[in-house]
Amino acid sequence: MDASTETSIAIRNLSLSFGLLDVLKDLNLEVGQGEFLVLLGSSGCGKSTLLNCIAGLLDVTGGQIFIGGRNVTWEEPSKRGIGMVFQSYALYPQMTVKGNLSFGLKNAGVPKAEIEERVSRAAKVLQIEPLLDRKPAALSGGQRQRAAIGRALVRDANVFLFDEPLSNLDAKLRADLRVEIKQLHQKLSNTMIYVTHDQIEAMTLADRIAIMRGGQILQLASPNEIYNRPANKYVARFIGSPS
Ligand code: ADP
Ligand code: MG
């Protein structure tokens, strides 16, 4: 079966094992073009592993991954058209913010003028223009995470993967950046898969939520539907529905 054009990402019968540990088990998932999908589940259920498979940072044990209808299962990460933001900022400490944003583009051979343009566009969207000449050590946690998002933005990717990008930040900053990420998505209208273990984050950000447990997806539906019609007791308890 191949993916329709409205489908941005299609995952078919995906499995991944680390030695004897089966982490992803025959997992199927379709994400629509421009959709904001939240993967919600408790620690250890396989969320990061799934994102890393989509990004091509891990080799799958079985199954296929399609992006924009193309089978990318064995394609190298840089060819997949993906921007990824990790939980820890993973900025290069010895480089300025501008250096961090430009680095991947330089390596990819993007012409200098275009790098300048993309970096200043991303910096404007994220309101980090005044910070471009600073090094990460001279930034607050929120500013660092904005810079990390910037590094994904400059890639002009059609698909963004966010792995718990706000979980190292305090509550106030988390709430602010949540709003910004939502606005960013409305502005760019690219496909997002956003991983979190935080129910509030999932409810406020998602077009649809996929509830994950033990390497499988238990339910995939809108926040409203999941809250009002949880598929089972585990989902109800996890999402905090009245039952
Ligand atoms: P989550 O992101 O939902 O917290 P992970 O995808 O990081 O979960 O991990 C899922 C399971 O796989 C956990 O049991 C974890 O210990 C295990 N795991 C993750 N990465 C590795 C690895 N590189 N080698 C062995 N086991 C791993
Ligand atoms: Mg994780």
Supply database-style keywords:
single chain; alpha/beta; 4-stranded antiparallel β-sheet; disordered N terminus; binds adenosine-5'-diphosphate; binds magnesium ion; nucleotide-binding; transport; ATP binding
Q: List the strand order in the largest sheet.
A: 6-7-8-3-9-10
Please state roughly what percent of the residues sit in beta strands, choosing from under 5%, 5-15%, 15-25%, 25-35%, 35-45% or over 45%.
Answer: 25-35%
Shape: globular
Based on secondary structure, the structural category is alpha/beta
GO molecular function: ATP binding
Protein name: ABC transporter ATP-binding protein
Family: Belongs to the ABC transporter superfamily.
Organism: Roseibium salinum
Short account of what is shown:
The protein is of the alpha/beta class and 243 residues long.
Structure description:
This protein has 243 residues and is α/β, with parallel strands linked by helices. Helices cover 35% and strands 26% of the residues. It contains eight helices and ten strands. It has helices at residues 47-55, 97-107, 112-125, 141-153, 171-188, 199-205, 223-228, 233-239, and strands at residues 7-18, 21-32, 36-40, 62-67, 70-71, 82-85, 159-163, 191-196, 208-213, 216-221. The strands form two sheets. The chain has a six-stranded mixed β-sheet with strand order 6-7-8-3-9-10, sandwiched between helices. Strands 2-1-4-5 form a four-stranded antiparallel β-sheet, covered by helices on one side. Helix 2 packs across helix 3 (112-125). It is globular. The model is unreliable at 1-5 (pLDDT under 50). The protein binds adenosine-5'-diphosphate and magnesium ion. The site of magnesium ion (MG) has 3 residues, from helix 1.
